[in-house]
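Researcher: Structure prediction, please.
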Amino acid sequence: MNIQQLLQGMAERVSASASVKNVYGDPVVVGSHTVIPVARIRYAFGGGGGNQHEHEGGGGGGCVSAGPCGALEVTSDGARFVHFDQRQKIGAALALGFLLGAAVMALKGTQRIELVKRTE
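Model: Predicted structure follows.
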């Protein structure tokens, strides 16, 4: 088996396990609303092989990740995509944390010790 066949077989096995149904399940219908889950699926594969003085070697690996991306809501009025993006909330939380830290440091201030030389 050559490296191309190895990677192709691996890709087929991994891609079979990464589907929207595995992340969410089936679309949900409630009254006149249908919600279709949407997932983001990423693949990465690599491999190598060699023939060094009749000692053949090779190997390969792969990775797949799947996670929620959003949902498509379909009604009699039309369809809309609801995006599950948390980047804005995370950015706002980081900015708020920075501002609170800066405010605490400003209120705490620096303590100053004054030395006064007395003359007698």
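Model: Residues 3-108 form one domain.
Researcher: Thanks, that helps.
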